[in-house]
Amino acid sequence: MFKKLTVVVTASLASLAAAQSAPQDGLVDVGGAQVYYKVQGSGTPMLLIHGFPLNGMYFNDNVAALSKYYRVVTIDLRGFGRSTTTPGQPGSVRTYANDALAVMDKLGIDKAVIGGMSMGGQITLEMYRAAPQRFLGMLLIATTANPASITEQYVWRGVSEQATRNGVNSIVPELVKDMITGRTRMNRQQERLFVEGLIKQASLPAVQQGAQALAGRGDLLPVARTVSVPTLIVVGQEDTVYPVVLSVKLQQQIKGSRLVVIPNAAHAVNSEQAAAFNAAVLNWARSVNLR
After folding, report:
1. What are the strands of the beta sheet with 231-236, ordered from one edge?
2. Within 10 Å of residue 248's Cβ, how many Cβ atoms?
3. In a domain, 12, yes or no
4. pLDDT in tens, 27-85
5. What's the pLDDT score for residue 18?
C-alpha cells in the first residue's frame, strides 16, 4: 500500500509540474483593443515586448531558454499578431505601455523584469515613467531613448504610407535588410523567412499606428536617468537602425547599467544571435540576483 501511495503522489507531482510549465495564453480588453498574451515557465516574472512591426513570436528562441528560469510573458501589441486594434486611432508609445501594464494586472503580476526590443524598449521606458514600482529589472534591446529625429520621422511615415498604398507585404524587403545582416539573409534562409513572416502578420492599422508612435515619440532620456533597477542593454554590433553609439549613450544615462554588444548581429539581435543573447541575459540576471 505504501508503494502504491508513493506512485500516486509522484504521479500527482508530475502532473502538477506539467501543468505549471504548460503555456497559457489569452486576451485582455484594453481601450477597445484585445491584447494577446502568452505565458511560459514559472518563477520570477519576465515581460518581453516586441518591436515594430513584429509580434510576440519574435522572442520564441529566447523564451525557450529563459522560461527554464522565469515565468516569461510575451504580448502582441495591439493590431500585431493575434491582437486587435481600432482602425483610425492614433498610435503612441504611451498607449502600448498602458496595454502592457494591463496585461500584468490581468495576470496578477505586481513586479517583473521588463524588457523590450526597439520600439519595445521605448515602451519599457514609458512603463517605467508611469509605474517604476512594477520593475524588478530592465532589459533594453536594440533601442534608443532619443526622440525621433526629423529624418527618422520621415522614415516611419514613409513606411506607413507605403503600407497604406501597396499593402503590408510591400514593406517587408525594406525592413528585413536592416533587421538581420546580409550574411544571415544569404546563408540562413529560415531566419530570414521567420522575420519576414512576422512582419507579414501585422495588420495595416497596426503598421499605421506603430509608425505614428515611432515618429511621434518624445524624449525618453529624462526617464532613463531615473532608472534605479538593474538594467541590461543589448545591441547588435551591425545594427543600423539604432547603432551601438545609441546604446552607449543609454548606458551612460542609466547608472549601474551593463552594455553587451553582440557580434554578427544587426537590429534583430536577440533572434539573429539568440544563444549569445540568452547567455548574456542569464549571466546578467545571475550577477544582479534576479535569477
Report:
1. 24-30, 33-40, 70-76, 44-49, 112-117, 135-141, 231-236, 258-262
2. 13
3. no
4. 999 988 999 999 999 999 999 999 999 999 999 999 999 999 999 999 999 999 999 99
5. 43
Range of 191's domain? Answer: 23-287
What pLDDT is recorded for position 21? 59
Q: Tell me whether residue 283 is in a domain.
A: yes
pTM of the predicted model as reported, rounded to 2 decimal places = 0.92
Residue 177: what are its φ and ψ, rounded to 5°? -65, -25
The verdict on residue 9 lying in a domain is: no
Spatial separation of the C-alpha atoms in residues 10 and 16, rounded to whole Å: 10
Read off φ and ψ for residue 218, nearest 5 degrees: -90, -170
**Domains contained in the chain, number:** 1
Q: What is the pLDDT of residues 158-188, one digit of tens each?
A: 999 999 999 999 999 999 999 999 999 999 9
C-alpha cell at 260: 553587451
Does any domain span residue 4?
Answer: no
Distance (Å, whole) CA 22 – CA 40 = 7
CA distance 77 to 36: 8
